[in-house]
Every structure is written in structure tokens, then in C-alpha cells.
Amino acid sequence: MTVTKPTRRGALGLFAAAAATLTMGAPAHAQVDFSGRTIEWIIPFGTGGGSDTWARFNAPFLSRHLPGNPTVVVVNEPGGGSTRGTNLFAQRARADGLTILGTSGSTQFPYLLGDPRVRYEYQDWSVVMVGPTGGVAYVSPSTGVEGIEDVAKLQGQRLVYASQGATSLDLVPMLAFRLLGLDVNYVFGFGGRGDGRLAFERGEVNIDYQTSSAFINSVTPLVEEGSAIPLMSWGVLDEDGNPQRDPTFPDLPILEEVYEMVHGAPPSGPLYEAYKAFNTAGFAAQKMVVLPEGASDELVETYRQAWRDVFADPEYQETFEAALGSYEQVTDRAAEALFEAGTTINPEVRAMVVEMLTNEYNVRLGD
Amino acid sequence: MLDVFLSALSDILTLKHMGYMMIGVVVGLMIGVFPGLGGIAGLSLMIPFLYGMDTTSALAMLIGLVAVIPTSDTFASVLMGIPGSSASQATVLDGFPMAKRGEAARALSAAFFASLVGGLIGAVVLTGFVLVARPVILAFSSAELFMLSVFGLSMVGVLAGKSLVKGVAACALGLIIGSVGGAPATGEFRMVFGVDYLYDGIPLIIIGLGLFAVPEIVDLLRRDRSISSGTTLGSGWLDGIRDVIRNWWLTLRCSGIGALIGAIPGLGGTVVDWIAYGHAVQSVKDNPQFGKGDVRGVIAPESANNAKEGGGLLPTLLFGIPGGGAMAVFLGGMVLLGIQPGPSMVGSRLDLTYTIVWSLALANVLGAGLCILLAVPISRLTLIPFKLLAPFMIAVICFAAFQATRTIDDLLVLVATGVLGVYMRRFGWPRPALLIGFVLATQAETYLYQAVQFYGWEFLTRTGVMIIMGITAGSVWLGLRARVSEATPAEILAVEARAPDTGPAANIRARAPQIVFALLALAFFGVGIHDALQQSFLGQVFPLIMAVAGALFTLLVLAFLVLGKPNHPTSSDTEHEAQSETTPPGSTLVALGWIASLVALTALTGFVIALVTFFVAFLKIRAQASWVMTLVLTAGCTGFVLTLASALNMRFPGGLLQDLYRLPWPFS
After folding, report:
1. Distance from C-alpha of A329 to C-alpha of A315, rounded to nearest angstrom
2. How far apart are CA B306 and CA B67, in angstroms?
3. Any chain B CB within 8 A of the CB of A313?
4. Distance from A168 to chain B by nearest Cα, in Å?
5. Among A272-286, B298-312, B318-332, where is mean pLDDT lowest?
6. Are B174 and B431 in contact (CB under 8 A)?
């Protein structure tokens, strides 16, 4: 197993190319001018976390490339697992371009699951940027697995996973393990993936996943000393929405491949549909920047042009990898495709997931 | 090894590095003085400047900011009895009584000098510890962490005041309040009653402000004098430094405790100050006056909470797990600078780790030094007549509470916990016990559940668990010998002036208010039991046991109140004493009413308009100030709040008016 160094040629290179072709046909848009204005970028999470860092990294670049160089400030509105700040945005923001929202997987999941606290509707909004990420699942050598070829050995074993909660991003590995027919015991109440990794290092759990940058920084050393065996990545979506290997981890199979190794046929059915929907919402389309309901085409185009310019900014290109990891942020059609895939779910698939969460994990939604 | 040391040292001791650190310290100090504002506000102020700076300078600025916050919030704790952050809650217990005695300057300089020493000791401990920290941190599994939370809870024994029964009941109250929101094991929501605000649980800062600051403001308003009973600042800042030097061994021990507990991820820095305080209470033999203004009760938590920041760096740098709010901010800043936490921080990037650890120590020295210089002038605040200071303090606590989630609900919960705090104080229910229960509720439940899942009940036989169990047992034994009461001596002697041999009927008559309060607590436990019974097994077991225990101990309290002889230690009502001091009856409600009026006005018109109206009304009606004075103070406070809000890009809680109309800043 080799982990390629994170490259700027990230997960969605294909998407980026598609976006570039669209850029050339962009209409003129000198009408919007933000001179002397302040743009509030609502982040429905607290200071210091992943979404906050992501927004604070991007904010100065956005300010530099929006017409009139407005001040872009990050406004943290945490609470309710990000539903509070997002509700506030849905309720209050005017479509004048002075308020934008940054969402994350934890904003998409309750929306997809029909959490009663959700009072926002993604389809009202216009997406102007999507920042993807990826993840890698790995197991302890104590399971007897030495490489992905031993994956069958995991079946029938009692695996233990440290989870942040059944409705968090951990729903994605949960669905993946289920597809593979693994018997995983979920221990809840962990504060974050970092705590989960600590439990793995202590030997309390034997299966875990980390997002790409955490995997590279903290799990690669364990892989090298032989105390962690990488299993699979969550993959990325190509232009047509088909799952592909993650360019950051080209040697690692994706779930679809592992499924075929285990079951002899490619995955299908509602459980796989659920995995795909939540995987996209949680990883490929994890971070989104949206404008509120009623934003004019002109405004959307102004923002998209700003993001195109940000992505072309040499300083951005130099620094973004160290701060955000190897996945390229996208706008335009690429962003729209990811937005679409990450915010829609077949009602039957949703009902199946909700039922599974209710019956097996005591999650109560919709009361 | 040596070259790593030297390169780190040479990085730090440059004029440029120190300059940037000083900027961080000054900004952190200006923000940290304000209760409720801490590293988070500081970071948002500083982030725009981080761009284009080289990594070392930017890091220096961030460290300066992070280091000074647990130091600067001591001002509010000591001078006003307002716990500025979780790091300075225990400081209130003895710091504020010292200020009331006119020894504010001494308390502050002792606190700052202890902070300084704590920060330095912390850095020394960490320099060696960082190399072995990884395996040590990994040795603390959920089982050990559960046992550590039990150790934290055992501090209730020390802080229970004169009635242990009430202490346990208060602690159970805290555990139940702390279990509001999502259950760790299942995520199901407990005691939320459909209120969105409760889904996330009640923020710690609000509990701290409600329990400690509101009762003090109410009390001072009733007594109508300045905070300091004297007219001069009796003893100066040199005394405070002398106090620390005289108690050097205590300072050293508490610094070590702070650094080590801070380094354990998961326990959270929130209990470090209580553990240090409890340790001081248990170990000081020579004329202890804890709870009444003993300077050692200031030195212990303050030396521990600065050392804790250093300790908290380890899990942040090595595992990417921030130990608390300030560390989360620091981690975010680090990531922005392109520094990713991980094992390399003790490998190839060890020099960077040392740069950070020692910068923190240096920043502590700069920050604490600056604070000592400011201690004497700022202490003069305690000499101002309280009726002029009160509107500021009420505005400050509302503003601070509002930083928790930025909704009007913060203020409503503040008033509710404030009422609870006022009556707990009156009836001698120990507030620190409630706070400890609250802080540890989630941890204790989570780690117990995880430990049982991972190890079964055999987790109790793990070596680490047994060691901590032994320490806990020792601490409980020591604690029962040396308990601290937060009541002042006069309150302890609240004489129940009546004949000694009357029966239960007379008891009920004399102690009716206390009995009603205990019955209300009992009802609350009843609600807790009822709610727990609606949950699944894993969601109910912890709150159910705690609520039942709380109910039983409250019944015991009631039994003592009804059957106990006059002056039974369980009976306590400071009104007996207050009435003898000719404080007008009902004045508690009037004082609470003033606080509630600001909240009510905010709910109607938004914070800014409410603030102006409240100031004018309070100063004219309550303080009977002249119009000039009223206008100057109102303009001063409003201007200050607006400047702060615009600098930090903050929005105020809106009211009905804002729901109906769109208003321009700052009314929006």
C-alpha cells in the first residue's frame, strides 16, 4: 500500500476540467459591486472546527476576488448539530449577496433524514462552490487481516467501532460495513474522529475510518509500523456521478470493488442507494457555499466568477493544500452536480434508513 | 536533542517573536477581561492578520492570545464574583470574598503571580513529558477516564459546605441538568420538552454566571454599598506576591496537577481548577479560611489553570484533540497556518513543539506581568458605590451569557439559573457541588458506558482504574475531614431564634421557605425520573440512577429540616441574618426583577435599545443619579459595547421588534 502525497490534482480533477470549459462562456457581469460592503459568511458550527477553518481559509480569497473587494467575515452560529444556524439563514438571509452560508455533511444529513429540527430546504438555494473531501477505512492487524485480499476474514468476527452517533458522518461507514455483511458493534459517545482514532490506538476498537487529511497525518505512521491495515476509501464521483478510486489513494479499492470481492457481484439495491446518497452528502459534496432563496442569476454568476478567480489565484494554489488537504474545490456545473447528488434522496431509501436507525440504534426522528 | 532545544530557543528569543507575542497578549488581555469572551472572540479578531505572516510570528501571536485568557478572566472572578470562564470558577470562591474585604489588589496579584509560576512550571513539566506523552496519554482509556470523573465528583465531599446531604443532592441536581440534551450512548434527547435550545444541553458559562454572578449582584444590590467593605485597598499587590512565595509548595503541586490533568484528553480542563482547589482545602492545615477569603483558595486554582493550558497542548499537538475551547481555537489557527497535528510533532517537528511549549511559558510571564501592573488601578472598581456599578455588571453578564449560543434563550436560562443560584445561596445548598456535577455529567456517563462496552465490568480491575480509585478514596477521606463552606461566618451562625425543644410543627413553620425549596428540588428529580423512564435502557440508566439518588438525598434533607433540632447543620437560611441587618424584605425579588427587566426588554426591542432604556431607568429610579451622570454612564456603556461588537463583528440578541421590522446595525 502506498499513499501518494496529497496533490493539488485532487479528487475532482475531472470535474474541474469540465468546469473550466464552462468558464470560457461566462457572461459579462460587471453590474454587481460590493465596494465598502461587508459580506457575512454564516458557518453553522463553532470556532476552531473543520468547517470554521475551511471558511476562514477561503474568506480572504473570496474577499479579494469579489467585485469591489468587500470585507468577508465568518459568522459562527453553532447549535443543534448545525441546524440552528442554517435555519437562521433560511429564515433571515436576503438575496442581496451580503449573506452566504457554508454547510457541511452534518447539515446535509439531518436534511436528508428528515430531522424535525430542520426548517431549511436546500432546493431553494443556489450553490456557488463545493469543497469535497474523502475518507479511508482501516482495521487493526488483530483481526487477522493483512491486506484487502483478506477482507473475507472480517466476516463473522466481532468488530468494534467508536462512533460519534448514528446520524453523524459515521452513518457512511455504518452503511458500508453493513453492505459488506460485517458484524460491527458501535460504541457511541465519541467526541470526534480524533477520539475514535485514539480508541483504535489503545486497542479498544479494531475498525475505524478517518477523513483523508487525518488519515495521511495520523494513520499513515501506524500503517508504516504495521499497527493499522487500510481497507478501502470512500472513492470520488466522476463527471457522470459514477464512483471512482480516490486519486489521493489510487492503490486503495473503493467500497464497490470490495463489495464485488465479497459478494461476487456489483452492489445494488436500496441499501447501496442509501450508501451512495449519504456518501456523496458526507464526503464528495461535504462543504457547500450557497446563496439564499431568490438570488438572481447575475448574483450567482458573480459569486461563481469570484470562485473561479480564487481557484486561479497563485497564492491560493500555494497554500490551500496545507490548510485543506488535497481535494480541489469546484464551482459551476461540477458544483451543481455534486449539490444535486448530495441533497436529494429517494423517499423509499430515506424511509429504509430512518427505520434502520430507529429500530437498531434508538434514533428518534420525526417526532 | 540539544540542537532541537537550541534551535527552538533561538526562535523564541528574538525581538520579532516577542513583539508578535506581545500583540497577542495585549489583544487577549483586552478581550479576556470581558467575561464570556475568550479565545474564540480573540481568534476572529486576529485571523485576518494571520495571512501573509510567517509561521513563527503568527504562531507567537496565537500563543500570546491563548496564554493570557485564563489569566485575564481572573479580574472578573475576583472583582465582581463573575466567573469569566470555566477556568476561573473556583477562583470566585475565595477571590471575591477577599475583594469584599478590601483585599482585591492582594487577591489579584496573588492570582497573577500564581498563574505566572504555574505557566512556567507547566512548561518545565512538559519539556520532559512531551517525549513520553504518547504512551501515557494512550494509557488513559475510557475506564481510567471514568474513574477520573468519579475522582472529580468526589470533590463534592470537600465543597459540600456544612451539610454533606445537601452537597450530594446539589451534585445530583447538577448531574441531571448536565444530562439534558443528547444521550451519549444513543443520541436520544432527554428532558428537552421540544425546546430547540435544550437539544444541545445548557452551556456551562450560563450555569456559572447564573449560580455565582447573579446571586452576588442581587446580594450587593440589596445591601447597597460598594463591593469592598473598606474605603481603601488595604493591602497592596506586593502582599499577593509574598503570599505565593510563602505557599510555594502548594503552588508547585497545583501547577503539576494542572499540567498533568490538562494533558489527559477527554476530561476537559473544566474540572482542573476544582481539583486544585479541593486539593488545597484537603492539604492546608494552618488556619484554613476557605470560602471566606483565604488567599490559598486563589493561588491553587490559578496556578493550576495556567499550567493546564500547557498540558492541553499535548493532546492537541500529538493527536489533534483539543482539550478545551481555547485549544480548539489554537488548533484551528495552526491548521490555517498549515501545521497539521500528528505523531510528527514529537518526531521530525519536535523543535516546533518546543517552540510552542516555551512560547506559551513566555507568553504567560508577559501576560501575568502585565496583569499584575494593572491589578491595583483596576481594583479601584471595588470602591465604587454598587448602585452605579450594578447596571454595568448586569449588562456584562447578559452580554457574556449571550455569547454562549447568541439567542435570547441564553438570557432566559441565565435568569432561571440565577433564581436557582439565589435560593441555593440563601438555603445553603452548595453551588460548587452543583457545578461539578454539571461539568462531569456527560463525561461520567459517556466513559462509564464506553468502558462497560469495551471491557465489561472487569474494567474496574484495570491497574490504572484501581490506582485512581485509591486516590479517590484517600481524597474522600481527607475531604470529609476538611470541608469548606461557601457561607460567610455570619451566615453560618444564622441563629434560629426560638425555643430548642419544639416539635416538627414548629420546625415546619420556622423553616417553611427551606422546605418549599427542597420540595421543588424533589419535584425536579421527579421530572427527571419521569423523563428517564421514557428513554431506552442505555439512555435512561444513568440519569435514572442519579435522579433517584438525588430524590433520596433531598428526602433526607427534608427529614432533617422537619425533625432536626434548631441549628441543625442541614438548616440554613441567610434571611434570618439579613433581616437582623435590616435589609428590606422582598428586596431579593426587586433585585432579581432588575435583571429580569433587561432580559424582558431585550426580548421586546433587542439588546441595544434595551440596554439604553435599562441604564437610564436603573440610574434614575434605583440609583437616583443626576441626569448628567445617567447620560454619561449610559453613553459610556453603550459606546463600549458597540465598539466591542463592531470590532468582533458580533450580533446582538434580537427581540420582537426585530422580528417585525428590519433595522440597521446595531439595532438589528
Report:
1. 15
2. 8
3. no
4. 10
5. B318-332
6. no
Residue type, B81: G
**Which of B186, B338, B343 lies nearest to residue A319, judging by beta carbons?**
B338
Please state, as a whole number, how many other Cβ atoms lie within 10 Å of the Cβ of residue B381: 18
**Cα B176 to the center of its chain, rounded Å:** 18
* Chain B nearest CA to A147, separation (Å): 24
Cβ pair A131, A11 in contact under 8 A? no
- What are the angstrom distances between the C-alpha of B159 and each of B274, B279, B429, B431, B486? 9, 11, 11, 9, 8
Query: Do residues B218 and B82 make contact, with C-beta atoms less than 8 angstroms apart?
Result: no
CB contact under 8 A, B332 and A204: no
- Number of residues assigned to chain B: 668
Chain A residues whose beta carbon lies within 8 Å of the beta carbon of residue B450 = 187, 189-190, 204
Chain A residues in contact with B344 by the CB 8 A cut-off are: 217, 221
pLDDT band at A9 (very low <50, low <70, confident <90, very high): very low
DSSP symbol at B227 = S
By CA distance, what is B321's nearest residue in A? Answer: A194
SS3 string of B640-651?
HHHHHHHHHCCC
Could you tell me the three cell numbers for B243?
Answer: 503570599
Domains of chain A: 13-132+285-347 (3.40.190.150), 135-279 (3.40.190.10)
Cβ contact (<8 Å) for A167 and B322?
no
Q: How far apart are CA A248 and CA B399, in angstroms?
A: 46
pLDDT at A7: 42
Q: Considering only CB atoms, which chain A residues are within 8 Å of B651?
A: 75
- Residue reference for cell 512560547: B359
Chain B contact for A198 (CB, 8 A cutoff):
yes
- β-strand pairing of A287-291 with A229-233: unpaired
Cα separation of B379 and B495, whole Å? 34
**Mutation choice for B interface testing from A118, A174, A188 by most B CBs within 10 A:** A188
- Whether residue B504 lies within 8 A of chain A, CB to CB, comes out as no
Alpha carbons B466 and B150: distance in angstroms, whole number: 12
Q: Residues of A numbered 34-53 whose beta carbons fall under 8 angstroms of chain B's beta carbons: which are they?
A: 46-49, 52-53
CA angle B625, B631, B636 (to 5 degrees): 115
- With left for phi above 0 and alpha for psi between -120 and 50, is residue B430 left, alpha or beta? beta
Q: What is the CA radius of gyration of chain A?
A: 20
Beta bridge partners of B189: B182
Please state the rounded mean pLDDT for residues B624-640: 92
With beta carbons less than 8 A apart as the criterion, state whether B292 and B79 touch. Answer: no
**C-alpha A177: how far from chain center:** 18
Q: Kindly state whether A22 is in contact with chain B, defined as any CB-CB distance less than 8 angstroms.
A: no
Strands A287-291 and A99-103: antiparallel
Is the ipTM of this structure higher than 0.90?
no
Chain A with chain B: Cβ pairs closer than 8 A: 138
pLDDT of residue A19: 44
Cα–Cα distance measured from residue B312 to residue B292, given in angstroms and rounded to the nearest whole number: 31
Q: DSSP string covering B35-81, please? A: TT--HHHHHHHHHHHHTTS-HHHHHHHHHHHHHHHHHHTHHHHHHH-
Radius of gyration of chain B (CA): 24
| CA-closest candidate to residue B603, choices B641, B649, B658, B650 | B658
Q: Does B202 touch chain A (CB under 8 A)?
A: no
